[in-house]
Amino acid sequence: MTDHTDTMMAVRLETATGNLSVTERPVPHAGRDQVRLRVEYAGVCHSDLHFVDGELAARMPREVTLGHEIAGVIDEIGDGVTGHTIGERVLVHPVGFVDGETSIPGVQYDGGWATYVVVPAERVLPVGPDLPFDQAAIIPDAVATPWAAITDAGRVRPAEAAAVWGLGGLGYHAVKLLRLVGATPVIAVDPAPAARARALRAGADLALDPTAEDFADRLASAGPIDVAFDFVGNGRVQQQAFDAIEARGRVVLVGIPQGPLVIEDSARLIRLQKSVIGSYGSERHHTEELVRLAAAGRLDLSESITEVLPLDQAETALDHLRNQVGNPIRIVLRP
């Protein structure tokens, strides 16, 4: 980046080719009903990997600045905006709608892998001085997605038994959040020893390897499971989760599979009155709830940030995520 005040650094994706480049761009300005943020941190998500690999979302432009997990400081306010001030610490709840279609920064319009980002004012939420920006940035996706799955889709009640398949960024936070709402026991399932150890530190009561010969027996010995969460997105996990839940239990699918839903014995679905529920993303109120919990000291995200890299190392960040270098929970970029 140069010293010019009218340019900034941004990480741009050419959606047709998957080419990623760090380049100078004009600094954007807030239009009506918009605010501009000086970005402090922006998260690196598996969705970003999918976009680079050519798995594009609807209505992505030919070229876009990536980054939908964003926290920063408001430094410009557009016409018509009330209730916000210059210098305000905020995060961005990414999901919005325009003419009935989803509109997300870093997907349908330029996102936060940049020095500055412009977003609708209605999407920003204030965060207090005690919540670090790096943790604030990841709340609306990496934390709010499992929170929505637990509280809305899964409807988890205190003392219900819950199991989590897949202990990446979403599953790790799911373990923490299930503990927070009082699920008992919380069972974590992942083939990676480091991920299982991390889940135990996050509050899991039991951590199991799904590839172990005694997996089914050890899972059954933990007692009947009320609700199971699939953060992986494949048929084997779907079947394991379905088999694990008791009568009237729920399977909540969060990970998006490449193939069809796999439930081998549909008769048991009916006779045992089991439920299979999809959960996608989160809503603004989920993010607001989590910010309040973090501010009150009920939710500790201090171990969630496993690596911080400068903006010009975005490709390194994606490579570390793809190859699970350092067993990441969440990698963040800092402009």
Automatic annotation (TrEMBL):
PROSITE patterns given for it? ADH_ZINC
Kindly give the CDD domains that the UniProt entry links to this protein.
Answer: hydroxyacyl_CoA_DH
Looking up SMART domains in the UniProt record yields: PKS_ER
Write down the InterPro entries for this protein, in alphabetical order.
ADH-like_C, ADH-like_N, ADH_Zn_CS, ER, GroES-like_sf, NAD(P)-bd_dom_sf
Record key words, sorted: Metal-binding, Oxidoreductase, Zinc
Q: What residue stretch is flagged as signal peptide?
A: none
Please give the cofactor(s) recorded in the UniProt entry for this protein.
Zn(2+)
Cite the Enoyl reductase (ER) domain residue spans from the record.
15-333
List the SUPFAM superfamilies: GroES-like, NAD(P)-binding Rossmann-fold domains
Which Pfam families did the record assign?
A: ADH_N (PF08240), ADH_zinc_N (PF00107)
Give the protein family.
Answer: Belongs to the zinc-containing alcohol dehydrogenase family.
Q: What is this protein called?
A: Zinc-binding dehydrogenase
What is the source species? Prauserella oleivorans
